[in-house]
Amino acid sequence: MSVASGDLGEVTGGHVKIGSESHVGRNVAIGAALVALAGGIIGFTTYSNKQDGERLAKLEAFRGAYAEKCDAQSFRGEASSMLKDSYLRTDRLQAAVDKQHAALRSGAPCDEIARALRQADFPMSTPTTAQQ
Fold first, then answer.
1. Which terminus of the chain is more solvent-facing, meaning fewer CB atoms within 10 Å of its CB: N or C?
2. What does the pLDDT look like over 19-29, one tens digit per residue?
3. Report field, pTM of the whole predicted structure over 0.85
């Protein structure tokens, strides 16, 4: 006796399924996971960009103050992308800039600040003129 000619209830357990099973729950869960992942990525990127912006503002404030007080032409204008990348990736440069910015505001000589920046591997393209 072939399956086609017999009672299908015996083979299938009483019901016949034709086609594939519906996966609505699985598809909704995958969609929700993708939305959550995208939200996480966007949130992290936004937070990271905000943090980087605050750090770069400190760098630009220092560069402007140093250029003004020490008449350093190489510190005028916007920092190069290489300097920005180095600054954002190196805690040592960030600490040095914060410390030297405070020293600059307290009246430290320009040559001492320049020496401290060089010791912290701060990229300085040209020698600075020391003024007090």
1. N
2. 677 788 889 99
3. no
Query: The tokens of 35 are what?
Result: 């939305």
For residues 51, 99, 131, 125, the Cα torsion angle rounded to the nearest 10 degrees is: -50
Read off the tokens for 132.
């007090």
List the one residue out of 86, 90, 88 whose CA is nearest residue 55.
88
